[in-house]
Specification:
This is Integrator complex subunit 4. The longest helix has 27 residues. Strand 10 and strand 11 form a beta hairpin. Strands 8, 10, 11, 14, 15 and 16 form a 6-stranded mixed beta sheet that branches. This protein has a 4-stranded antiparallel beta sheet with strand order 7-9-13-12, with no helix packed on it. 55% of the residues lie in helices and 9% in strands. By secondary structure, it is of the alpha+beta class.
Length: 940
């Protein structure tokens, strides 16, 4: 019975009744986010709740750190600050409030005239000197933001004049600063301007040195703004050169220089005589006197100002290198003056000479001021100064003056050569660079060359390379000087082999400048004997290459020298001409050979490139075009190795063709849009995509000299590669593609904007991408991939861009280390070992992206950013650098020596970070350094 009831109950409860019920409508609930008030606005409202001035200062500092206002909140915030300013009694808080008002008004679009008027009204009854100083500073900063409002500037200047009689020096100084910056010079009467100028000049006699200095600085500002000083103020300004305070003397020096440069031909009368002198000559003498000043800053400024006074007379200029001022404390008089004094004396003595026993006029030694020596020995004192700032300024001043005066350059040569022995490297470098700039005026003698060549032993590479440049630009007086230079450079090369290229360039220019001197040294340099056959030198010897470069460059300008060359020298010339065409000139040994060589170099390569690309353009079908592209890639690679003149253009075309063929291979196999590939097929597609992405980045970032058309073609190809990569990530992998999709769409927008601005018509594929993506309603990865896939399957290879000799490819040549298993580097495990790196970088478009990459045997990779100072620009070769740095190697203990790969790469992750490790582009083959970290020795 129980079983029957249970079955019946189960049957009743398990009975299902189906009824059609309409699904409820999904209601959208719009949640409005609360408006977050601006932090600065909230803090301003809390100012009135501060109980102490310390709390108010802390709150005002927070407001200054978070200056974020909307446009409609700026003026109410400023009004609140002004209200709080009037309520506050603490002067420090009022100073901060005014400073904050100035910052808010400067960074916002607000009516500055209203803010300035409120500030003026707030300062009218102000008594605190600190607040007045800050208020004037605020008015000056806001007034400079309204340059066209003359009436407002007049009002501010009038307000500043009212505070010139304040008892505080800071208020006076700030008032004069405001007058100097805002005094209108156009649109008002000349009398008003001169009255203001006279008012400022009156403060140059103030008792406070700070006020005197501020007055002089205000006059300088007015002069720079267009108010020309008059020569009548010169004598009063010269009095300030003897002021007790250096800040006053500095400002007066600048004014003396201004008057001397602007009125060089005006004459003045010397105070102790009736002699007239040019204004610039007297100003030059006064500034030369300041070279002996007690203050280092004054001496440095005086030397800097002297270097720009090129209109000074030669007698004053030459006097700066001569210390002779007086002899035995006696006045120097001419012979005519001495005879006239004897004649009018009327005294008799021995009868042989008038007044021969009269005591000579003596001078009290206390009345003589040796400091007032004028221009006598000014530069000598500057070069012998104990502070490097003064010596540096003196060397630069001599260089600037010598570039326009041949005689002064010759006289100052000995002094500058002596500076090669200075104990500070920067001073030596500046002296070397100065002589390089003066090289067209000077001729080195043997005694001077001894000092110059002695500096070649300097440990600093900058000093040695600077000397190479100086020797290359200077003229030598005799053949013995040339022999000394050659011997010194060869000795330097033995001690510092890393200076090889710099020495070669030095000897190249030295030979071109001294062909006649080199002609007399050819037999000794090349070891030519008239009767005996000498052993043939080794052409791989760097010293012999130096001599050949010197002689061959001299032979270019001295054809009789060619008759002295032996057969082995001519053979070595042919070898060097092929390996170093930029160092060895073309000589006319054989006219027919020369003409054929010129023809092959200048016309054959360019004709070959043009014919190659024309054949690709004329291909009848895509299959034939693909075959021609494959053959052209091999030919272009070989051409880039043969002819350096078209190497960049040939390498660009070869890389573009290779990328096109690789792109076509991926598309034709349909491997990029299938997720059912085997592991081997997946790796193949992944490797092909990596190569393709790197090729696209190389095309964009590793070539210089591309015009707008070629650069647009390269960027459009990169867009195709990014589209293919996006479809591959969405269709054939399980990776997230959101970031990549966003990056791709941003690239599309950027390229579309660039093509529109440059008025360049996009190719068919890029135009289709612009068209189809504009129709998309959503930009999810799947939708974008579905849009791009049919477009990619219609891809056809393009022809490479037209050749251009201006195109150069970025490359790196590592000079050291050479690597190899023979030289194992050992260091203690866990510590750091520095490996010196010396590399030549050619045609680098973006030096900021250069990195050193260290790849360890355990596949760890470290990127090292070289210091900017380690990149030395190559002179006369834009875009080329020499990298001299140290690669830091560190690892744990290894069982045996293993190879660490060192290379120079471009890190483009800042631009294309979404692409990951693909952004690292190799610029040279890795150097294998065999490293053996040793364990730490325990115990004693």
């Amino acid at each position: 019975m129980a079983k029957v009831l249970k079955k019946r109950a189960l049957a009743e409860y398990s009975h299902q009744i189906t009824t059609e019920v309409e699904p409820p409508l999904k209601k959208l609930r719009l949640v409005s986010k609360p408006v977050i008030e601006n932090t600065a606005t909230v803090y301003i409202g809390l100012l009135n709740k501060c109980k102490t001035s310390n709390e108010a200062l802390q709150l005002l500092l927070r407001i200054s750190e978070s200056l974020h206002f909307q446009e409609d909140e700026v003026l109410p915030a400023i009004n609140l600050l002004f209200e709080y300013y009037h309520q506050q009694t603490n002067s420090a808080v009022r100073v901060v409030v005014l400073s904050l008002i100035c910052d808010i008004a400067s960074d916002s679009k607000v009516d500055l005239q209203v803010v300035i008027e409120d500030t003026l009204n707030s300062l009218k009854k102000e008594e605190s000197h600190k607040v007045l100083t800050q208020g004037l500073s605020t008015l000056m900063k806001l007034g400079k933001l309204t340059p066209d409002n003359v009436s407002l500037h007049l009002k501010l200047v009038q307000f500043a004049k009212q505070h010139l009689n304040d008892t505080s020096y800071s208020v006076k100084n700030k008032a004069m600063d405001l007058i100097g910056e805002l005094q209108p010079l156009v649109g008002i009467s000349e009398s008003s301007v001169q009255a203001t100028f006279k008012l400022i000049m009156d403060f140059t006699h103030s008792q406070d040195a700070r006020v005197r200095s501020a007055a002089f600085n205000t006059v300088i500002v007015l002069h720079e703004r267009g108010l020309k000083l008059k020569p009548s103020h010169y004598s009063n300004i010269c009095i300030a050169l003897r002021d007790d305070y250096e800040i006053v003397r500095q400002a007066a020096l600048k004014l003396v220089w201004i008057l001397g440069v602007n009125y060089p031909e005006n004459t003045i009368v010397l105070p102790d005589s009736e002699e007239e002198i040019r204004l610039i000559d007297d100003a030059f003498g006064n500034i030369c006197t300041a070279v002996n000043d007690l203050s280092v800053r004054v001496r440095t400024q005086a030397c800097k100002l002297l270097g720009s006074m090129t209109a000074v007379s030669s007698k004053f200029l030459h006097q700066t290198l001569d210390k002779k001022l007086m002899s035995n404390m006696r006045k120097k008089k001419s012979a005519h003056e001495r005879d006239f004094e004897n004649l009018v004396s009327g005294e008799w003595a021995s009868g042989n000479k008038w007044a021969d026993d009269k005591p000579r006029e003596l001078i009290d030694s206390d009345a003589i001021s040796l400091m007032r020596s004028g221009a006598c020995g000014a530069f000598v004192h500057g070069l012998e100064d104990e502070f490097l700032e003064v010596r540096t300024a003196a060397v630069e001043a001599i260089c600037n003056l010598a570039q326009d005066n041949n005689q002064f350059a010759s006289v100052s040569l000995d002094f500058l050569v002596d500076m090669f022995n200075d104990e500070i490297e920067d001073v030596r470098l500046i002296a070397i660079n100065s002589l390089t700039k003066m090289s067209r005026h000077i001729e080195l003698r043997e005694d001077q060359l001894e000092t110059v060549l002695g500096a070649l032993e300097d440990f600093s590479m900058d000093v040695r390379e600077g000397l190479h440049l100086m020797l290359a630009s200077c003229r030598l007086s005799t053949k013995d000087c040339l022999q000394m230079c050659v011997d010194g450079l060869l000795d330097n090369l033995k001690k510092y082999p890393q200076d090889k290229k710099s020495t070669w360039h030095c000897l190249q220019k030295m030979g071109s400048k001294h062909p006649t001197l080199t002609l007399s040294l050819v037999p000794s340099l090349l070891a030519i004997h008239p009767f005996f056959d000498m052993p043939e030198p080794n052409v791989d010897d760097p010293a012999y290459i130096c001599i050949l470069i010197l002689v061959l460059n001299a032979a270019q300008h001295c054809p009789p020298m060619l008759q002295l060359f032996e057969e082995n020298t001519i053979k070595h010339y042919s070898y060097l001409r092929d390996t170093m065409p930029n160092l060895v000139p073309q000589l006319k040994f054989n006219v027919s050979l020369q003409s054929s060589e010129l023809k092959s170099v200048e016309t054959a390569t360019s004709q070959f490139l043009e014919s190659l690309l024309s054949k690709i353009e004329a291909a009848p079908s895509n299959g034939v075009r693909t075959e021609l592209l494959g053959a052209a890639e091999r030919d272009l690679d070989r051409l880039s190795q043969i002819d350096s003149a078209v190497a960049g253009s040939a390498r660009l075309s070869a890389l573009f063709i290779s990328s096109q063929l690789l792109f076509s291979k991926i598309i034709n196999n349909n491997m990029f849009c299938s997720n059912s590939n085997t592991a081997q097929q997946t790796n193949t597609v992944k490797n092909c995509m990596t190569r393709l992405l790197q090729n696209a980045l190389k095309l964009e970032h590793c070539f210089v000299g591309l015009d707008e058309q070629r650069l647009a073609l390269v960027k459009q190809f990169k867009l195709k590669v990014l589209a293919l990569h996006l479809v591959y990530i969405v269709r054939a992998t399980n990776q997230s593609a959101r970031a990549l999709t966003h990056f791709f769409l941003s690239q599309v927008d950027r390229i579309h904007k660039e093509l529109t601005e440059q008025k360049i018509t996009p190719d068919s594929f890029t135009a289709l991408i612009f068209k189809e993506l504009s129709k998309l309603e959503e930009t999810k990865p799947g939708a974008v991939a579905r849009c791009l896939q049919p477009l990619l399957q219609k891809f056809t290879p393009q022809s490479p861009p037209n050749p251009d000799k201006k195109i150069k490819m970025c490359s790196v040549e590592v000079n050291s280390p050479t690597g190899g298993a023979d030289n194992v580097l050992k260091f203690t495990a866990g510590l750091i070992m520095g490996v010196p790196l010396d590399a030549d970088l050619y045609n680098v478009p973006t030096p900021n992206f250069l990195r050193l990459r260290l790849k360890y045997p355990d596949q760890q990779t470290h990127l090292i950013v070289p210091r900017p100072s380690h990149l030395r620009p190559v002179p006369d070769d834009e875009g080329s650098y020499r990298l001299v740095t140290t690669a830091l190697v560190s690892h744990q203990v290894w069982t045996e020596a293993s190879a660490v790969e060192l290379s120079v790469v471009l890190d483009l992750s800042e631009k294309d970070s979404v692409l990951g490790p693909v952004c690292i582009i190799d610029l040279c083959k890795p150097i294998k350094l065999y490293v053996s970290p040793k364990p730490v020795k325990r115990g004693i």
